[in-house]
Amino acid sequence: MNGHSTLALHEDRLFPPDALQRAIARRLYAQVANLPIVSPHGHTDPGWFAGNAPFANATELLLVPDHYVFRMLYSQGVALDALGIPRSDGTRAAVEPHAAWRLFAENFHLFRGTPSSLWLNHVFHDIFGLRVRLEAGSADHYYDRITGALQTPQFRPRALFERFNIEVIATTESPLDPLQQHAAIRDSGWSGRVITAYRPDPVVDPEHEQFPEALQRFGEITGEDVHTWPGYLRAHRRRRAFFASMGATSTDHGHPSAATADLSEAQARALFDKVVRGVATAADAELFRAQVLTEMAAMSLDDGLVMQLHPGCFRNHNLGLFERYGRDKGADIPLRTEYVHALKPLLDRFGNEPGFKLILFTLDESAYSRELAPLAGHYPSLFLGPAWWFHDAPEGMWRFREQTLASGGFYNTVGFNDDTRAFLSIPARHDVARRVDCAFLAKLVAEHRLDEDEATEVAMDLAYRLPKRAYKL
Amino acid sequence: MNGHSTLALHEDRLFPPDALQRAIARRLYAQVANLPIVSPHGHTDPGWFAGNAPFANATELLLVPDHYVFRMLYSQGVALDALGIPRSDGTRAAVEPHAAWRLFAENFHLFRGTPSSLWLNHVFHDIFGLRVRLEAGSADHYYDRITGALQTPQFRPRALFERFNIEVIATTESPLDPLQQHAAIRDSGWSGRVITAYRPDPVVDPEHEQFPEALQRFGEITGEDVHTWPGYLRAHRRRRAFFASMGATSTDHGHPSAATADLSEAQARALFDKVVRGVATAADAELFRAQVLTEMAAMSLDDGLVMQLHPGCFRNHNLGLFERYGRDKGADIPLRTEYVHALKPLLDRFGNEPGFKLILFTLDESAYSRELAPLAGHYPSLFLGPAWWFHDAPEGMWRFREQTLASGGFYNTVGFNDDTRAFLSIPARHDVARRVDCAFLAKLVAEHRLDEDEATEVAMDLAYRLPKRAYKL
Amino acid sequence: MNGHSTLALHEDRLFPPDALQRAIARRLYAQVANLPIVSPHGHTDPGWFAGNAPFANATELLLVPDHYVFRMLYSQGVALDALGIPRSDGTRAAVEPHAAWRLFAENFHLFRGTPSSLWLNHVFHDIFGLRVRLEAGSADHYYDRITGALQTPQFRPRALFERFNIEVIATTESPLDPLQQHAAIRDSGWSGRVITAYRPDPVVDPEHEQFPEALQRFGEITGEDVHTWPGYLRAHRRRRAFFASMGATSTDHGHPSAATADLSEAQARALFDKVVRGVATAADAELFRAQVLTEMAAMSLDDGLVMQLHPGCFRNHNLGLFERYGRDKGADIPLRTEYVHALKPLLDRFGNEPGFKLILFTLDESAYSRELAPLAGHYPSLFLGPAWWFHDAPEGMWRFREQTLASGGFYNTVGFNDDTRAFLSIPARHDVARRVDCAFLAKLVAEHRLDEDEATEVAMDLAYRLPKRAYKL
């Protein structure tokens, strides 16, 4: 590949340029670089680890499923059909994977400075051994190298899992999922720890277009009369217990807002009745989701599952794209999100319970210093999840630390989680987080706000101990 | 001027103090420092270039028209009358320009650290060759030097335009403007490229006190019956075509919010009827502005004019000042601004149109990472204008880049525009933007997130290519 | 104390690690490090200075009264009873102060990187001469050293006041306070200047559970018929005059929002009538507080007291904790806060008055660049208080400067105030503020945006001159 620009992963990447801080950051990072990966919140496909089949090719593995990548191409005029993105009707433009990859390569400059470029270059360099930059002229070289490697045993999912030094990874499943893949993993005798997490949104959100069918199926799978409020709650309890038996230690809730409610039994029944009858207004739906969150907290107190709340996203904002290509096509847009009033009903009931843990995420960074750090720095049950989704980038991580430290400290946060379905990027993502935390700590040490031995302990806590503690792993 | 403090413009100003980053920043800046100025959005007076008459004196040129300057003096107790600021009744306190300038000089310390001081010192040093600081003791020296220079041929508007290496500058005019000055420039044979932009706010905002008269005049000037909805729309189309024929490549919309609407024809007619009859409520007015934005987008699809939206300012907040001195006296205050719901009606219609471009600005920085970068990083029609107005400062530019990079990248932004009526400050403003972008890029390079050749390309794109592409120049 | 980690206060702490900036910061700091402390807004107990009795022990002085410290312990599961925090019924768990201190020491790592650790380590090191870190093994050493010192004459309140080089300190009292402690200080012949500030919230907030009794007492103490609107206003005027006679130069208002109102006399009477009869709704209460703020501004114009407004906190958010332990237990959480519309009624009346000063604080940092700096950079009556409460930390101070500088400059801010009841931490807090301001200024100098002589002047203004000017001290 002569004549091409070199691709390098500098050993000091993401460290402060200042020599003093860089030296400290290096020493801190040396202590955490090789710690096992704890990935308590993610969206990989358990079927990969159950079946251990090879991934198909570069395009199908790295481009087509990753809406964080193709959203950027789309934003600059690349048609989704030109990339072979599947449509919601099941069809797909007849595009050669090679051709789609070339289009990606030609536009790779769009990712300059973004976290996608950090992750992708890490994958290219460390996993596939590529040493030239991705660009028009190297597109075929990339495609062939990656696709070829994927056919070898070392690139099967389990081999990569082991190579990545993953101690435990959680996937996320709907209550309707029979968890057969997890059972298959367990029964296979393979030592990799792949657990599930309980994500009940499909049976919690009355505004989801498939809610009636999902609710119906929820009843069938649990044997409860889920069209009554008590039966509905029993079904959740039953399903949570099953998920826990398959390794789950947490639940996950992706709501439009952080609203919680604490209705009386009679109010809740009446509300549920409207939901079941399909006559819930938007406000009813919001209240129902809010009430279910509080019910979930009550169940967590009993079954010990850690609760996660990810509010504040307008899903499928692009109407035309949604109609043609369906969900999860890069058109989810964050919303301003309020926590102080929203969480009070739930916290009034469970905020001081020693056995309860609620991990909060946000897409509204203005809440870090104003609402989230003060809440987490007070309530024993509250912890802050890391900089999430659009903010899972060096700048976003840095703002998270800078804006939560004063009121929340380090120990009301839960370390890093990758939140990704892009399996190959997991080491890169944890590496970025570890580097940024070490860089941040190095600044504190260089400013004499922390001694280096303390910073080392914090770095190890953030990279490894806090996620294990927070998620009971 | 012995005994006075020296005024210097350090060649490394605004670069990171760290030696490694500074060296990179210098190299990047060397590539962009002398690129021509592209100024696609501004408020200079085309009459300056048409008539090419000399500017009057230091006070009339640099102090009286610049409400960013006199607002700061006013905030510390300097009366507007003491500066000779014209009142809304056309009168003006009898103040010697010399005396007003002295008052300015005595209070110049108030600007320490502000962008005004960066721009003014650049103008003083580079354009007028001043080498002592502006302060009480140097006030007369300044006044005389500047006023004297302004009488010479080299300080006439066209000479400065050429000296500033301006490739193209856009002014902003109301649809009611006959564009005679632009015609005079065109007919003069002078080679300077001064174009207009279509700013229809006076005939779009029913809450403007002169709306009825403006609408009347809009009908006269276009020959359309603008008191009917179809006639009103036809008048816009006609006027936009005329503006385009005079060089305009964009429209500009300064609204209180980012609201857009997509009413049916019947709803729009009914709404317009209320507006015309002067019975529109505040909510009607908001909805009308919202609907017109969507209509403007539809027209942009046809005539190719790039659309700019600058929402989120409470104009003329200071009641007493407004009554006495009128508009634009430094009392405009930014408001919290929502984009995700607000823009959806317009984006649902035109967001995926290849031929449509909407450039968004904000005064609410909390929207950068939460709303604007995710929107621009998805919709092909959306681009982000630079850090604007109150945020057009080194810190504001830095926050813009830091908070839009992860989701929007560099290529969904449109480079810099100066948005100013302070003609002499234009080179200073572009220089600050170029320096800050180079400093930001130098950090990425020093942290090994970008190679220097890539950073060089980005720097040139931001300074020159992206504004030309975004504004079709 | 062999075997323990060393506690050091590095002379360069909080300065930028970069050698160039650090050198500048050192020089700037050398000019301000020993300036007297001006503390115009705080919550120390005037009884300390009146009685000059020794403080009891380490736990009672440093842990039990400081809800910023015990909130962090509580957030990680330490029960308030285990620390001996008094309950609202007057009882208190039987906990040895020694034991509570040990619990604090064991958990001191929770404070890593927080401002509490900066302040506490400063107190430990500089005031008590401790040279090992606080941790489990040094808990008793700490307790004994601190408690022992407190019994000596040099650690009595007045001796510490003098040692701290406090030029003037303001406490905060309710209108119902007879100011006997202040009278005792004045009559004692001691030269320390301890003044009061007028904080009328208990008789202004109809939602305070003790409002009816407070209003009753307000009438008794002033001899006015405070159940009529004119009498109520007269009572304020009378009480403000008394406070001014006891040294007060300011009033202080802690409201849930920044709302102000400008009702007609008839409207205000009708509203007050509802308040007095106990039938005010939440909206009435909000409007009443809003109206009283405007009345207070009117009185400030007459009596010259500087007005302070601290809005935007949800007090006592934790219901269970409030019921058991009462107010001020670390469960106050900031709220999103709007200023532009909220302040307009008051500013329309008094915003341009030369004799009026309103100092604004915020817990919503998103308002700094968007609303507060533009307001303060225009209105002659408005000034910005420093980064407050949850934001009184190096990162918070830095964000305050970075986000207010462009529109507000340095001179529309009022320098630092400590806002604390933790008397011993006052030197540490002012030292942190001075260091951070010098670090910020050093960056501007290193980037050639300010000359060092200008930065020195600004540093001295921020540390000493501006608070004196703003608070008329």
TrEMBL record, chains A, B, C:
InterPro entries: Metal_Hydrolase (IPR032466), Uronate_isomerase (IPR003766). Belongs to the metallo-dependent hydrolases superfamily. Uronate isomerase family. The keyword Isomerase applies. PANTHER family: URONATE ISOMERASE (PTHR30068:SF4). It catalyses: D-glucuronate = D-fructuronate; aldehydo-D-galacturonate = keto-D-tagaturonate. Pfam families: UxaC (PF02614). This is Uronate isomerase. Keywords: Isomerase. One of its GO terms (molecular function) is glucuronate isomerase activity. The lineage of its organism: Bacteria, Pseudomonadati, Pseudomonadota, Gammaproteobacteria, Lysobacterales. GO terms for biological process: D-galacturonate catabolic process; D-glucuronate catabolic process. Coiled coil: none annotated. The keyword Isomerase applies. Its EC number is 5.3.1.12. Pathway: Carbohydrate metabolism; pentose and glucuronate interconversion. It is an enzyme of class 5 (isomerase).
